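user: At home tonight, take the chain set out below, taking as long as you need, and be ready to discuss the fold:
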Amino acid sequence: MAVRSTPGGVVAGRSTKEAIREAAIELFSDKGFEQTSLREVADAVGITKASLYYHYASKQDLLLAIVDPIIDDLHAVADGLDDVEHGPAGQRAVLTRQVRAMLRHRRTVLMFVRDTTAIARAIANRDEELQDARMRVCRWLAGPGATDEGILRAAAAFQVLTVALGSQELVPEADTELIERVVLDAALGVLGVGPDGADGTEGDSAHHG
């Protein structure tokens, strides 16, 4: 465990509530949600189990405190679409926002790998909201009046970005800049947008003829 606690029991530079959440992320990712006790989380932070219950009423509440920010960040990308002008540069900007939102939670997503059922139960009441946000981003990426091919390319590009979520398990030592560049370039390629934000689809072929 890399959680560092002060003699007073609060992780240095963080509130007790945040320290509990960070310790839980590490333990749930390492051991699994079902296999980790709240006493272990409390011990990692340097507080009593009773103190932990003051901040989180149950292990399920603690799990939701970990999962909800992931969904909120992904939803925020969809909510910000109206502020972006559609086009190659805008598509790149939206994909960049999306991949960065995913990268912020790459360590947390190790929990999904170990405890798929537990996580699925935790996000069940927000699954429709999550799917709606995903669909909004995909349709925006495809653009107004998009063809079936355009919609499929947009959905595939979004799916490519999800590699960032699993990158902690795939390449645990890789830095976020490398992951962002590789995943973003791959998604732009699927969408048909050049790395400099230029349109690279066949529809632009007139410029080459």
Q: What stands out?
A: The chain has a mean pLDDT of 85. The two ends are 60 Å apart (CA to CA).
